[in-house]
Amino acid sequence: MTHQTDYIGKPTNRVDGPAKVAGTAKYAAEFSVPNLLYGYVVNSPIAKGKITKIDAAPVLALPGVHQVFSHENVPSLAWFDRSYKDDVAPGGSPFRPLHDAEIKSSMQPVALVVADTFELARYAASILRIEYEQEAHETELAKHLDDAFEPGRGKTGYKPPKSRGNFGKGWKEGVAHMEAQYSHHAQHHNPMEMFATTVEWLGDKKLTVYDKTQGVFNSQQYISKIFGLSKEQARVVSKYTGGGFGSGLRPQYQLFLAVLASLELERSVRVSLTREQMFSFGHRPETLQHVALATAEDGSLTGINHFAVAETSQFEDFTENVVGWSGTLYDCKNVELGYRISKLDVFSPLDMRAPGAASGSIALEIAMDEMAYAAGLDPLEFRLRNYSDFDQAQDLPYSSKALRKCYAEGAAKFGWEKRTAEPGSMRDGKMLVGWGMGGGIWDASKMPATVKASLDADGHLTVSSGTNDIGTGTYTIMTQIAAESMGLPIEAVTFVLGDTTLPESPLQGGSWTAASVGNSVVEACTKLGEALLKQAQKMDHPAFKDAKIDDVQFANGQLRLHSDDTQAVVLRDIVQASGEPKMEAENSTVLAKLEMLKPPKYSMHAHNAVFVEVKVDPDLMTVHVTRVVNAVAAGRIINPKTARSQVLGSVVWGISSALMEESVMDHRFGRYMNHNYAEYHVPVNADIHDIDVIFVSEEDDKVNPLGIKGLGEVGLLGVAAAVTNAIYHATGKRVRDLPVTIDKLL
């Protein structure tokens, strides 16, 4: 079966764009359901201790208040930890909302007030009196490095690849050395759409749950296990998501609270979190890192040491791959890696765009810049001299690697050859000019996903899968793939997602959705094509009598012979001849799951190279990022328009990480103090200038049939380091504690 249309690879407009612009796209807190009640969450003001008294009587006396839920009146629910573990839960015991009187972190939800209106629920929550017994808390990572421990393998946590060679020997062999400590503070996801759940009560414990999530099946199995619901009783829907960045990978507590209230009150209930409450759960963990590098006379690396310590909660062991990339990205025989976590009185961290790699690449790529200076080499030349053509960490060849082309095309576009090496040597009038670079690597993954393809008697194709679209363009690229697969115009194809009544798909995360669901779309369409051919052979078309699927093509809404495209039959006529309202097919994920159990034959990754220009006022030390070129090699690009948007967002986030973004903890209270958009600083339009995105051509027939590697994470990597390196080039001041704020430069 070959495809005669060419939608794949073309810059197609978002098919969901009109609904979003017109306001008909509904988000979790926008569904109108009858007899709706509103819940408002009450959060703990202390970081550690226990609740000693809750006085709910004055609140319950208010007309229109239906209930105050707390640990004192929550019904008996599932007992074992496994019932509360979602698909991406780390090791340890998952947080159970309203489970007991214990306070584990600041802003922990301690009560839910349910009333006729949101305004009444909010007011009632403000007068609810709760007394606490406070205990001493520990939230400062730097003071608890000695308590850090190495997590175990598998489900109990990430452990970096084994060290190779002998770093001590490699360090002694080096003629140039660098060694430094790097740090960044916690960051919170802060998508535009805040977390909300609307539960529609349908009677007899049957619910339709409209949830803000990156995985409807994860939310479904979570509430099903806790509340003893069947899948039929717990339908979860998430058609549109206003940003996620990893915050929606795990079910958040408003889902639990909304379902609890609905089941207890036998009414529809909506629980929406405020912006402040968005700081009450997962975040990118604060991470402290140590990097040491040594090079030989020719600039080749003789030793790499990368060690990291990150925070986790007291109840879960959250881990991420911070240091592993350092053993893969560059060629070096002697590599020593270490990773530990330390338990603090904070909520469990959570995967955040490019988890682990975003933190690790900051330290590694700044260290590579420092090493280049120590070795007397241009930062780009230094990376090229240490280019890895083979994955030494996994002892595997790469399925493809176009990072050299990223370096070459990015540098050419940026004009890197005009850079002078000496810090402070480039100026634009009064302003100091700095040029820096960085780069990154991210796994190219594919997960099992099920897709159904259905062609109706009018010739309209509906393709469905329970995946999500968090703004990445999933609706659009799946429509493109399906249209090309079946030879139909875009307008004749509808892709349906975000509902647990649809075929099961994995969480949207890890940059695997395009590859996982996209390849399954092709498989489902191929099976539908086979069914259409069989039906055509039953009709009065002798040309197709002995045809096999490889003998035909689908184009312009027709089934045609390869050898003679005048021999054709219209697809809608085939469906009509079947006597059924539609013909459909579904792919199986069994083979995909079996394939995942096999040892890998190749190391499969996407790569990028980032070049940044900054201009720094020498008196005020204000930093302006004036130009960025991000060259990305990520296999086959399905839609350059939506893909470019992905990378543009990554670059903006990288600038934010370098210069602005941090969740500021006041350790006296164990509380994040800048929990709002006014004080949690992110870039605005005036902060962002020229960004060029280059997609380096890269064909890979080993990674998956469509050759997709994924874009969500890799575009972010190296950006923050490149900005920081450019600041050094402009000012001669090396800042290793991010974000690089003015006070650190003055």
UniProtKB/TrEMBL annotation:
Family annotation (PANTHER family): DEHYDROGENASE, XANTHINE DEHYDROGENASE
SUPFAM superfamilies: CO dehydrogenase molybdoprotein N-domain-like, Molybdenum cofactor-binding domain
Domain Aldehyde oxidase/xanthine dehydrogenase a/b hammerhead: 22-136
Full protein name: Xanthine dehydrogenase family protein molybdopterin-binding subunit
